[in-house]
Amino acid sequence: MRPTDATVRLAIADLLAQRSAEATVCPSEVARALSADDWRPLMPQVRAVAIEMARQGDLEIRQHGQALSAEAALRGPIRLGRTSSAAAAGADTGGHPTTPDGRYFVVRGRLWRKANPGLPQEERDALVRQLMDARRALRGRCSEAERQAARERVDQAKRALGERGPVWWTDGAPDFNRRMARNTPYRDWFAALPEG
């Protein structure tokens, strides 16, 4: 049975997560991880998913050690590597582990959707300020109407950030926000995390 693009994406992210930040993987390694015996027919799909991931800024396509544009005409062998921002992932999650595809971070075993990385920094900063202001409004004494209005502002900010509502990725993968990692396709990755 042919894997879905979401499964290929997870396989790429998982292999990259197992390597050092500057290491790369070959698309054939991904295909073999998906089907050890019949991996060659998967190569076009793996390359297509990798190109889409590169377009979304989730990885870099490299050739001869140089990063290539996802729009470049790719000929010959390529390698897949983390982007510099993905290599530094975790800085915006308070040290909580981030899934290999960068979509969620994990707190007490539960997945929490991260903000859309495609948001311009100024817009993201403004939305985070709105979110923090709304959360502060929930503290202390306030009427039920004020509390409800503040909750609605929290929800609006989280939706605008991409942490709630429609997902910000475009590969058709389902949303696992607020689910226990062990009950999702991230279970193997989560089980391999060091304890503590």
TrEMBL record:
This is Uncharacterized protein DUF3253. SUPFAM superfamilies: Winged helix' DNA-binding domain. InterPro entries: DUF3253 (IPR021660), WH-like_DNA-bd_sf (IPR036388), WH_DNA-bd_sf (IPR036390).
